[in-house]
């Protein structure tokens, strides 16, 4: 690794963010197994407290399974406006250190501190200070990963969770990656990991034995990505101005919907929520998509695109047209409405130039 191509990247990841906010706002919930989202009968867990995780409860798990794993699990309805408020407080702290902040979601972000506002050459110390301030000023715990690229920083942030941080030093990155189980590589999902294991790829060292030609033949263009990341090569910059590609609202119902009247009543509320989000973000789009999830968890989407941007007063009419586009197979578990092909104005961040960095201050 050439010193001229070293950045200092921090990945901050809040610990059990939604659940931690609920425990922060309601001290009676502290120390208790908590799930945000769903209820004991249906829905999906959006976040689980660490007390719930000890029972095997995880985000994206069905609420029914979560309740079976942890009978004393407390279900809390999400409060996304509150989570967004807290997230904005945390991001304000980030901007005290650098303007190169790339949010991935409400609870995580990349920061490029190669050159920073506090004049500290150590990304490790900056990460410690950010975590301290989040705890003191917001009241929540955060974990951090530090390395010379985004891929490694994100892996590092998970190593000492909760409320910890880890550094993957440039000089030790390849040795670390060689020992890393293949399913721990960020961007390699369960199905891809299973396919790799059929070729005898169980960790980074195994992956390293396969040629670029073989990986691209088996995995397409992403094979290039796999070939590079196991060698510690990932040149994606921290992009402070991520362009939104879509905007949506959806709802998972307490009881399955079984007729068109109930579907329309539900869609009116979802469209109203989408209108509010459009007003807040000030975006317009040319494609509208209706998402229908049935009680057997199969998903159907129906979309319609226009030459001109869609006016908010048209949304419900178009959604109703999409609903009648084909028969609905009742019962329905979830409905969602999204707008895409957005007209975001181009906002190109200044090039994040690579600089010569000394290892000793990493």
TrEMBL record:
A Gene Ontology BP annotation from the UniProt entry: error-prone translesion synthesis
Catalytic residues (positions): 108
Keywords: Cytoplasm, DNA damage, DNA repair, DNA replication, DNA-binding, DNA-directed DNA polymerase, Magnesium, Metal-binding, Mutator protein, Nucleotidyltransferase, Transferase
Binding-site positions, Mg(2+): 13, 107
InterPro entries (alphabetical): DNA/RNA_pol_sf, DNA_pol_Y-fam_lit_finger_sf, DNA_pol_Y-fam_little_finger, DNA_polymerase-Y, DNApol_IV, PolY_HhH_motif, Rev_trsase/Diguanyl_cyclase, UmuC
UmuC domain segment(s): 9-189
Keyword Nucleotidyltransferase in record: yes
Subcellular location: Cytoplasm
Any one cellular-component term (Gene Ontology): cytosol
Recorded GO MF terms: damaged DNA binding; DNA-directed DNA polymerase activity; magnesium ion binding
Chain's role: Poorly processive, error-prone DNA polymerase involved in untargeted mutagenesis. Copies undamaged DNA at stalled replication forks, which arise in vivo from mismatched or misaligned primer ends. These misaligned primers can be extended by PolIV. Exhibits no 3'-5' exonuclease (proofreading) activity. May be involved in translesional synthesis, in conjunction with the beta clamp from PolIII.
PANTHER family in the cross-refs: DNA POLYMERASE KAPPA, DNA REPAIR POLYMERASE UMUC / TRANSFERASE FAMILY MEMBER
Subunit structure: Monomer.
Family: Belongs to the DNA polymerase type-Y family.
Name of the protein in question: DNA polymerase IV
Organism: Anditalea andensis
Lineage: Bacteria, Pseudomonadati, Bacteroidota, Cytophagia, Cytophagales
Gene: dinB
